[in-house]
Design brief:
Blueprint: H1 2-20, H2 24-44, H3 50-53, H4 55-72, H5 75-95, H6 97-108, H7 110-115, H8 123-150, H9 157-185, H10 189-205
Helix pairs in contact: 2-8, 4-5, 4-8, 5-8, 5-9, 5-10, 6-9, 6-10, 8-9
């Protein structure tokens, strides 16, 4: 009787483990579903979309017309330096949203609900990263469209635009994993944003993103 009781407890445990195993196809479907959830969340809370829709338009206009004459001699001469820098800064700034939203979901108990669902364990995180990739694409498009309206004509043409955008998106996607880790370890969403800026500002302003290399200190 004891052996039968032990077998009865082991078999359901094994069945649960088998049910928790997901195939690659199911993991991809769950990832797409979670990404769609994050996109719907952005649509219902438009303030989370402000950095994607406003910064790529506001920053080129503000930096270009305020500092173009002082740094580049004219707005048109400064745009080839400015637009790639704005693209890098805006996409890197957007990448911290991954950790911020992850921390918010954990604080609200949403992740505990995900654990009870029959979905791939990686889906909540990979879905958030996939949704953020969509945000990066929107940032890249708006940045180059704003630059084109201001008179920016990239020397590399469309190939250069696509290549530069993919490079910036790839770097931001890698950093978003770092910010996701910070979101798990941090105590609040506000602290995630504060810590993220400690990474973002040195990467952008302590570089040649907005000024020529020849103007930087030597040695």
């Amino acid at each position: 009787m004891e052996n039968e009781a032990s077998i009865a407890t082991i078999v359901p445990a094994r069945e649960r483990k088998l049910k928790n195993r997901t195939t690659f196809g199911q993991a991809m479907r769950d990832t797409v579903t979670m990404a769609w959830r994050n996109l719907l969340k952005m649509r219902r809370t438009p303030e989370q979309f402000a950095d994607v829709a406003i910064q790529p338009i506001l920053f080129p206009v503000m930096f270009g017309y305020l500092f173009g004459g002082a740094i580049g001699g004219s707005v048109a001469a400064y745009l080839p330096q400015l637009i790639p820098g704005i693209l890098a800064m805006t996409i890197l700034t957007t990448s911290q949203v991954t950790g911020q939203q992850l921390r918010e979901d954990m604080d609200k108990g949403v992740f505990n609900r995900f654990k009870s669902l029959p979905i791939a364990r990686i889906a909540p995180l990979s879905g958030a990263l996939l949704a953020d990739t969509t945000r990066y694409l929107i940032v890249a498009i708006l940045t180059f469209v704003t630059g084109y309206v201001m008179g920016y004509r990239p020397g590399g043409g469309m190939v250069g635009i696509v290549g530069g955008s993919l490079l910036a998106i790839g770097v931001a996607w890698c950093l978003s994993w770092v910010f996701a880790l910070i979101g798990v370890l941090a105590r609040s969403a506000g602290s995630v944003q504060a810590i993220a800026f400690l990474f973002i500002f040195p990467l952008t302003f302590l570089s040649n993103a907005f000024v020529p290399v020849t103007t930087l200190p030597v040695g």
